Amino acid sequence: MTSLHVALEERAHEVMARWKQAVQGTIVPESLPVIELLDHLPVFLREVVAALRDDDDASTIRATAEETKTASTHGSQRLRLGFSLDAVVREYGAMRNAIIDTGRAAGVQITIREAQVVFDSTIDGIATAVSEYARQRDAELFRQHNEHVAFLAHELRNPLGSAVMATTMLEQRGFIPVSDRAAVALNTSLGKIRELVDHALEEGRTAAGVELRRQPTSIRSVLEGVELAAGTDATAREVSISIRCEDEVDVMVDRRLIHSAFSNIVRNAIKYTHAGGAVEVRAHVVDDRMVVEVEDACGGLPPGSVEQVFAPFVRLGNDQPQKGFGLGLAIAKQSVDAHGGALRVQNLPGKGCIFIVELPLAPGG
Question: What total of structural domains would you count in the chain?
Answer without folding.
Answer: 3
